[in-house]
Specification:
elongated, 0% strand, 4 helices, mainly alpha
């Protein structure tokens, strides 16, 4: 007998995985580590992304004594 579940599963798109912000940053750092050459800080994952800079800026401007 033909497996109908298999036939209909061909028409259903796969689910897109949900990533947390920490997982997303780790994936981005791993991609940068694998694709860079020459800059040793990038290869070790020691850099700031634009979102990191915005986060630091918000902390610095929001700090009150």
């Amino acid at each position: 007998m033909i497996n109908l579940r298999y036939i209909f599963s061909l028409f259903i798109p796969p689910t897109i995985p949900k990533y947390s912000e920490k997982t997303r940053k780790d994936l981005m750092r791993d991609a940068v580590k694998k694709t860079t050459s020459g800059n040793i800080l990038l290869q070790f994952g020691r850099y700031l992304s634009s979102s990191d800079v915005e986060e630091l800026r918000a902390k610095a401007l929001g700090h009150k004594r």
